[in-house]
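Q&A log
Question type: sequence-to-structure
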Amino acid sequence: MLFKWQYPLIIGIVALLWMSFDISSQPGLMHLLHAQEAVRSTNDFVPSKITCLQVIREDYEGLRLSYPCKVLVDSVKKEIYIADSGNSRILVYTHDFYPLLSIGKSDGVEAPVGLAVDPEGYLFIAQSPTRKHKKGRISVLNPCLRWKKDIFLQGFEGADNFNPTDIAINDKGYLYVTGTAYRGVVVLDKLGTFSHLLTPTDRLGKAPVEKATICDVEIGNRGHIYLLSEDMGRIYVYDPDERFLFKFGQKGGGSGKLSRPRGMAVDSRNKRVYVIDYMRHTASAYSDDGRFLFEFGGKGWAKGWFQYPNDIAVDTLGNVLVADTFNNRVQVLNIR
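Response status: OK
Response body:
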């Protein structure tokens, strides 16, 4: 038997439960609430609004992306390159996200995992081993995106088993190449000949100091070299002459920490460095001197959410592009 005073209490509880269910069923609203909560939990350098401008899902023929693993913006042509690993191809889009063309096996592209464009417009593609090519290689396409040559790395310890994963090119034409579980980066000259290794050392907790494995490399507009270590949860910064400057980032599974960082982007316009975290499904933003600012994302399927994202880039307008790998898409976000 219920007393009269219990009815308002029961009605209130039911109303609260309904509101909770109703909000959770609206992805857009949940995204907005999540973004606002993330902004409130940080400092004065955070954005006031994060908006999804575009979701790239298919090419000009309507073929859907399948596990996109890398995204690159050519700052000269302002074109966007996406390594569509599930379809063994590279897709090219205009600066306003219109699909231009697809580069595939007929162009020498079989297993693309890393991309870079040099100052002259040549496209460099890091490719994993295939049945046809038993060894990883870097394929070079001319500015018209026609195959020119393949570079097979040699001349250094571990070269026989080296599988390139990413590339960055400085203004002198030197290539900085990361490899699967490789400690440091391999530096090649303009001709693709081995020059030297660049290898930071570090320690995780109380473990002994060791050479750090590097999974991603980027070069900022001032020529600074950024090396990302997934294992260490750290970013190492060098000047254009490869003198070590500082490191930042912290290994961990909570906010402001890096669990399994896979890719990064240097935003020279806003003086930020973005790092995508594969396991936490988030992107972290740091100041150019390494201070953590804010993070965004989280595991989900709606706009603004990610599923095992693998890479991140910034276009010429300052928009952030995320290779949302297991959602089979690339999201374009405006952060203000």
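Response note: The chain has a mean pLDDT of 89.
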